[in-house]
Specification:
- With 178 residues, the chain is α+β, with helices and mostly antiparallel strands.
- It folds into two domains: 137 residues, Alpha-Beta Plaits (2-Layer Sandwich), CATH 3.30.70.1730; 37 residues.
- Helices cover 57% and strands 15% of the residues.
- It contains seven helices and five strands; from the N terminus they run H-E-H-E-H-E-H-H-E-E-H-H.
- The chain has a five-stranded antiparallel sheet, sandwiched between helices.
- Strand 4 and strand 5 form a beta hairpin.
- Helix 1 packs across helix 3 and helix 4 packs across helix 6.
- 22% of the residues are buried.
């Protein structure tokens, strides 16, 4: 059991991360090996986010201090909190990738691993984000891939039209000479 000083220190760290954050993503870390949690922390650090294990009661106190009415105790499991200054669309992908690959590439129980994503909270708009939405956004390809796909969709009709013109010109040129 943590002492009052340890709890205050944990709350202080949570406050510091909260001040820099725009989005919180809540995850269930029960039965996740310590080595995997270190890997998650490292991946999130590279993405510009921090993973903090904080007791649900302390997280509730932290949110209440910030004027956010959200019941963290609705989750039956232990809650790990991802604090991110970036948007949900940037941070949900590494979280989704981590939980979908939990247990290795031959993970047969992928759905239960993804269910460890409990949801999120948009601090700017003060609104809860359902777990399904966090997972859906996490599955989207990167911005660069989406822009490439959009460019391909826009260029495709033009390419087809140019192909038709080329074939028509070659068909007319071939029959006139014969």
């Amino acid at each position: 059991m943590k002492t009052k000083a340890q709890k205050q220190e944990e709350l202080k760290k949570g406050n510091e991360l909260f001040e820099k954050s725009g989005v919180l993503v809540l995850t269930d870390f029960t039965k996740v090996p310590a080595e995997d949690l270190r890997r998650l922390r490292k991946e999130l650090k590279q993405a510009g986010a921090n993973f903090l294990v904080i007791k649900k009661r302390l997280l509730g106190v932290l949110l209440k201090e910030k004027g956010i009415d959200f019941n963290v105790k609705q989750f039956a499991s232990s809650v790990g909190t991802v604090f991110s200054s970036k948007g949900l669309e940037e941070i949900s992908a590494p979280i989704f990738k981590f939980f979908s690959t939990l247990g290795g590439p031959e993970n047969k129980d992928k759905d239960s691993s993804i269910k460890k994503i409990l949801g999120g909270y948009d601090l700017k708009n003060k609104s809860f984000i359902e777990a399904k939405q966090v997972v859906m956004i996490g599955q989207l390809p990167s911005r660069e891939v989406l822009l490439g796909q959009l460019f391909g969709m826009l260029a495709s009709p033009i390419r087809s039209f140019l192909y038709l013109l080329k074939e028509k010109a070659s068909a007319q040129g071939g029959s006139a000479s014969g």
